[in-house]
Input
Amino acid sequence: MKSAVIVFPGSNCERDIAVALEQVSGHKTFHAWHRDTDLPEVDVIAVPGGFSYGDYLRCGAMAANSPVMRVVKERAAKGVKVIGVCNGFQILTEAGLLPGALIRNQSLKYICKTVDLKVENTDSAFTRHYTPGQHIGIPVGHGEGNYVADEETLKRLEGDGRVAFRYTDANGVVNAAGNPNGATNNIAGIFNETRTVLGMMPHPERAFDPQHGNTDGRALFTSLLESLS
Amino acid sequence: MKAKVTVTLKHGVLDPQGKAIGHALQTLGFDGVGEVRQGKLIELELEETDAAKAKAAVEAMCQRLLANTVIENYAIELV
Output
């Protein structure tokens, strides 16, 4: 499995996700700069977390229009797997690779903690090593993670099994108490139509190594490895 | 020519900042304020002198970058 991670000015999770990809695959992850107009042949592209372009205008808006994202869009259209985490998720929605948008947390506060999640769909290259409905804990760190979409989009996402992860309470129940940011339907992560693009607010790369004290994110990377080898 | 673009969250999209501003106004004793919605103002200096062309260009800018039409409305004013 060959991988690339996209680095924008202000990205700050590119190394963490590259380490996770490198450790599962044994291949060095290519680091692409936002101005790059080409990428090597890779199987998976990671759009990392951070504060690309200082979150100017809207989170992810500037990054979505950067030269390298044109290449990411081309590759995504060819079926190359794309994962966007946190700011990466915001960038993928701004770029039109995923529907909806991420707005300010309902609380107006930046949230930095481990949240409880339910794995909603394991039928994807990203989630096959989880079990359906599995209750996991993954860290989040965001101020704008409140997922919104129009009713029709939500209907499609829900009807087509495109919700990947949902926030839950400590008992694994999807409810308002377990919703950290006000996201519609407790949505924490979604797929595109072909389930080859995943965007999620929680950071699986921060729950990867035993030294993180939590390895619940590891299955996402091993899923990719199995799907792409 | 100058263009002023006002970007606001669509109605129906929760505006937590607007809500917080509303609460703050209430705390300060400003009664009679209903819903508060906040947005942003973007001023553009344009070389174009033809109003229709300028408006069309700014419209395209709004669609491509200045507004996220999933969640935001925009209004263009030429001055």
Summary: Chain A touches chain B at residues 57-58, 61, 65, 93-94, 99-101, 103-108, 146, 148-150, 182 (CB under 8 Å). The two ends of chain A are 6 Å apart (CA to CA).
